[in-house]
Structure formats: C-alpha cells, structure tokens
Amino acid sequence: MLVKLDNPTLLSKAVEIISELVTEVRIKISEVGLSIIAIDPANVALVGFKLPRNSFSQFEAGHEILSVNLDNLKQILKRCDTGSSLIMEKKDNLLQILIQDRIKRTFTLSLIDIESEEKEIPQLEYSAKVELNSVDLIDSIEDCAIVADACSFIVQDNNFIIKAKSLNSAMSEFSGDEAKIEAENCKVKFSIEYLQKFMKGAKLSSKTLLQFAEDHPLRMDVKAENFELVFILAPRVETED
User: Fold this and answer.
1) Whose CA, among 29, 98, 128, 145, lies 20 to 30 Å from 179?
2) Domains in the chain, CATH or no CATH each
3) CA-CA-CA-CA torsion sign (49, 72, 119, 123)
C-alpha cells in the first residue's frame, strides 16, 4: 500500500479533530479512498471521515486496515508545512510516513492491534433538517457555553433556535432567511462539551447540515468537494427547568 497527498493539511486537521474523541482508530484504505469511523469511549459520540481517492495524487491500495494511535499520528502530521507532500506506505507492521518539502523526512509509526467490529454510521429518520453558515453555528454554540453545559436545538414555527439556560441564558434564533429549514416542531438537548469538539470540524466548510428529532441523536454533516466529515451525538436526557 502506498498513497500520496500533495496537500495533507485536511488530513492533518481531521486527525486532530477525531483525536479529541478517541485515542486509537482503524483507518480503512480501499479502492474508493481513505475512511475512519470511530466511537468515543463513553458511547456518546461517533465521528466519520472520508477522503475520496481523487484527493490523492498517487493511490496504490487494495483493501488495508491501519490501526494507529491517533496522538502519535497527529504529532507526525503536524510536521507538514504548507507546500509539503505526504506519502504513507505500509511495510509489514509499520506505517512509513514520508514528508517531502525542502528535504525528505521519514517517520515510522508502529501499527497496533485494535479488537473491534467494523463500525457503520447509523441511518436514522429525522424530523428536522437545518443547513446554516458554519460561522453562525460556531458562534451560537460558544454563546451557549458561557451560560450552561448543555443546549437545546428547537424548531418552532419554522424557526431554528439554539438555547441554553441555567441561572443565566443564551439564545440564537434563525429564520428561513438565515438558514435552510425543513422541519417539524421539535426540541432536543445536547452536551455543549461534545458540540464544541464538533465545531472544530465545522470550521472546515462554510456550511453545516444539522439533522435531529425529538429524543433522537444529532447528525452533523460537514462536506466539501474533497472530503466528508460526519458527527453523531446522543441526546442529553434530563428534566427541563
């Protein structure tokens, strides 16, 4: 197996985001490209990442599973500068990583054993679908983080509301002018700690798609032409004030 990225920045950022949730992953290399699906140890959040084959300038792979420590991989990928190219090659039980810029730098990363079943992103039915500017979503979550540790996603009369309340409160409201809203009225609550981790992924695209329903997990999609990032988050179940 040998794959080459002329611009490894996106992979580096994705690995950094995923490492906020898990420490070890199985990276799948197949004829369609590179993919990662991982669930955090608390079984609260799932993250999926896809980098299609056409993102690579060289792609010689059939079907490989690379089980790695994400912290180690993250530190290596951080050594890539703007303009660097990245080659990953599997050699026995090692992943050889070559960073090419002014000079050639080579790292070897030991592959590890991860005993787990192959994971899939769950396909769920949602009553609410909201697409909005990522910067507006990020700001709204940060507003809520000032006052509480959880926030509610609310659809009311075709408006989308993000609201947090404890002793203090914060609220952002979006009409059809600020967001694309296809939804029935509903309300569901999520952990802000996890949402803040997801927001690092939202920064990678100008738009973010949210799908949710009463008492259902949140699905958050961040997509562009050359990648796909999906987050699933279980709802926060507690009595409302």
Assistant:
1) 145
2) 2-110 (3.70.10.10), 128-233 (3.10.150.10)
3) negative
Joined together, the tokens standing for residue 87 give 């080659």
Handedness of CA 213, 218, 219, 220 (dihedral sign): positive
SS3 letters across the chain:
CEEEECCCHHHHHHHHHHCCCCCEEEEEEECCEEEEEEECCCCCEEEEEEEEHHHCCEEECCCEEEEEEHHHHHHHHCCCCCCCEEEEEEECCEEEEEEECCCEEEEEEECCCCCCCCCCCCCCCCCEEEEEEHHHHHHHHHHHHHHCCEEEEEEECCEEEEEEECCCEEEEEECCCCEEEEECCEEEEEEHHHHHHHHHHHCCCCEEEEEECCCCCEEEEEEECCEEEEEEECCCCCCCC
What pLDDT score was predicted for residue 118?
A: 77
User: What are the average pLDDT values for consecutive 10-residue runs of the chain, which has 241 residues?
Assistant: 95 96 95 95 96 96 93 96 94 95 95 84 94 98 98 97 97 97 97 98 97 97 93 83 44
pLDDT, residue 239, reads: 52
Residue 75, both tokens: 């530190």
Tell me the residue length of the chain.
241
Which residues 6+ apart lie within 8 Å of 42 measured at CB? none
Give the Cα separation of 169 and 129 in Å (integer). 25
Calpha distance 124→212 (Å, rounded): 9
C-alpha distances out from residue 180 to 30, 131, 144, 155, 211, Å: 34, 5, 22, 12, 12
